Description:
Bound molecules: 2-phosphoglycolic acid
Largest sheet: 8 strands, parallel, barrel
Number of helices: 12
Amino acid sequence: MAQKIVAANWKMNKTIPESHSFCVELAKKLLKISHTEVILCPPFTSLFHIKDPLQKTTVALGGQNMHYELSGAYTGEISAPMLKSAACQYVILGHSERRHIFGESDKLIKKKIDTALSNQLQPIICIGEKIDERKAEQTTQVIQAQLRSALENITQEQATRCIIAYEPVWAIGTGLTASPPQASEAHQFIRDFIGQQYNQETADQIPVLYGGSVKEANADKLIIADEIDGFLVGGASLEVDHFVAIINTVEAYLKKQE
Length: 258
Ligand code: PGA
């Protein structure tokens, strides 16, 4: 079974003081979490400053994006070594906002994935279809193409360091959530595809997260659905209590499985 993960994607929210006080609160409330990997992906400016309040927790840090080059004349960009020096273990790549607002292509995202893997950062690779693609019954073709590009020439060992986040674009920040069967179907497709590329053991090891309007009210139904290994949470991760409630839901589910 893949590890269960709850990752927060704060997007362009929270100043350094806001991030710091969130993490002070979070550290107090997360004391009993032992089964779930919690990952926080704040804005770059906050990364270094939240290390301290999180010191006694197991919360890991991730960047929200990264350039594929390691350094150079790329104004406004952040590199893998920079993220690592700010204590990141993870980096979100291919988020739908990067794909659709900033025009990132599969090819560009692929270069970033390769750089992350060769620099010991675990990529959280986001894939997902737009509403017109779902209506045209192209969901599996779209996610297969994104996944095929992302995993091209990636070894089995590298694949086991990847995390996939299935995030239907129509569910992100809209309040619409994929139903548990809709999410399970996509996750099963993703796992089968990985199984065909590598083998079943590798496919079972790679966490496949769901993202898109996850909140306390739907997390319990989604986490028990087949093939869902956790969540990538946007809006609901901005409030400590809402975020902790989602983590507690996953934690409670895991304790029940023991
Ligand atoms: P949301 O965002 O939870 O606000 O829908 C999820 C994401 O964009 O990763």
